[in-house]
Design brief:
One of its GO terms (molecular function) is nucleotidyltransferase activity. InterPro entries: NT_sf (IPR043519), Polymerase_NTP_transf_dom (IPR002934). It holds the Pfam family NTP_transf_2. The protein has about 210 residues and is an alpha+beta fold. Helix content is about 50%, strand content about 15%. The chain folds into two domains: about 80 residues, Winged helix-like DNA-binding domain superfamily/Winged helix DNA-binding domain (Arc Repressor Mutant, subunit A, Orthogonal Bundle), CATH 1.10.10; about 120 residues, Beta Polymerase, domain 2, CATH 3.30.460.10. The strands form two sheets. It has a four-stranded mixed β-sheet, sandwiched between helices. It has a two-stranded antiparallel ribbon with strand order 1-2.
Length: about 210
Amino acid sequence: MQLNKPFATVTPTLDGDVLAVLASADAAFTISQVQRILTTASGEGIRKVLNRLTAQGVVLHDQVGRTNTYRLNIEHLAAEPIMALSRLNSKFLNRLEEYLQEWGTTLRYAAVFGSAATGQMKLDSDIDLILVRACNSGHDGDDGWEQRVTELARRITAWTGNDGRIVEYAADEFRAAAAAGEPLLRDVAKQGLTVAGRRSWLNAQLRPASGRS
């Protein structure tokens, strides 16, 4: 699936894109406003979709003078599943965060990065995740770590249909990579979505490296 296009999981048509816009805010939209958000859709195509959805009662149409506005009918029986679909991205991040809380102090930090974080996913995109293990390399630590990582990758695929691409660091390896100015870590700092640990910890690890650059 594409986390940035949640309605594509049930419909590949423009209808899903338009519903995503209407569900994004408790507000009325003109056709031109919807078009500015979708960018690649034509005004005529959007108008036809809104007319179909209005006929179904899912969308409410108002006209003031020459201005036509459209908004999601939140009282419609279909409104709840529509809203649920519109929130798939945040639902995924929340579920991931809740699952990683079970790892306790074994996990120092985790973040989603790459196209899943920037909203540029394609249908076959991987979901990139960085994990920083609390113990240093060479320490036995938690014997179940590898099993947990394997299960995490399986769950990501089960939840989304996409492969989970997990990058792992022990704490000392992470600090060494940060000191060396590892580009991947700069990407995580710039675009990553924290799902375990604190963003302030990540920034503190990267600060010495950025100070030298």
